[in-house]
Amino acid sequence: MSQEFDFTDHSHRRFNPLTDSWILVSPHRAKRPWLGQQETPMKSTAPEYDEKCFLCPGNKRVTGGSNPKYESTYIFQNDFAAVKTDQPDLQVQNSGKDTLKDRLIKVEGVRGNCFVICFSPKHNVTIPQMSIPALEHVVGAWQTLYNDLAKQARDDHKPFKYLQIFENKGTAMGCSNLHPHGQAWCLSEVPSEVSQEFRSFDKYKHAHGADLLGDYVKLEMEERSRIVLENDSFLVVVPYWAVWPFETMIVAKTKVANIAQFSEKQKHDLAEMMKHLTVKYDNLFETSFPYSMGLHQAPLNATGDELDNAWFHMHFYPPLLRSATVRKFLVGFEMLGEPQRDLTAEQAADRLRKLDGDHHYTEKL
């Protein structure tokens, strides 16, 4: 064939070095007509205070306790925690004879604790509508929780190994309470997705004598085609291997293993990136943009390779594909074969880069 390969029109696969996996990119599919399910655009009409909300200041929670009349970021233990600190040991029965059951049926107990993080006392705001100083309080609360749980693990022998901080924004991502909040699950083991990243970091360092994300930051700063935002401390990029249409990653420009190591400057710069990125998201389709977001960093009290390989970064996985009403589904081939996307990372980055990240679309209404 004499035709030259066109990355914006021809199918190809891209490698994800973080998870040691591949993704199919089919940019020509973005031209197909859409007759499938359409979401309802998110237009918040919520009041600043909702007397029925379990997370608003001063309100009773579902289990009977009450929130204090908090005025900034507020953290409390989840009333419906996915893991418990105190529970019986799981006695694993293993014959020691390499039976099929020994090989294939494996289980282990897990302990931990879960927390709810109310970003703001205001019921009707989201991260893009909060000020940078208010978001610095959120980052500071994450930092305090990380430090407190690490101390409890050291001094009180609590079964805390890894703290997964995350937010599900919007009903499309399963959020059951629209008060601005995130969660933090602290487990006695490092979760599978994070463990895979650490294996990839270790493999890359042994092969190349360098940090995987450190090298990736260098490459993105040289090529610049996938950078959405940048400040002194962080890059926001659409990863080369992104799965979700407008997936992004906030990654530290210099090595910092965990949020506890942040300087005041880095706290400010992360808050700034979160603000400007999420404003761009909302401006993209002029809707309250749903996503799942999470921090990846070193385990609590990490030493040796765990600490040396860690590089702080955040993943944002938003599902919207073409508009405020058309979302991406990971089904069919994506579930049975490998993930697939309909526009390239470079195309997504270009669209996000051109959007205003300072002024929220609602300010113009």
From TrEMBL:
Amino-acid positions noted as binding Fe cation in the UniProt annotation, renumbered to this chain: 197, 296, 313, 315
A GO term for molecular function: UDP-glucose:hexose-1-phosphate uridylyltransferase activity
Active site: 181
GO terms for biological process, alphabetical: galactose catabolic process via UDP-galactose, Leloir pathway
Protein origin, superkingdom: Eukaryota
CC cofactor: Zn(2+); Fe cation
Record protein name field: Galactose-1-phosphate uridylyltransferase
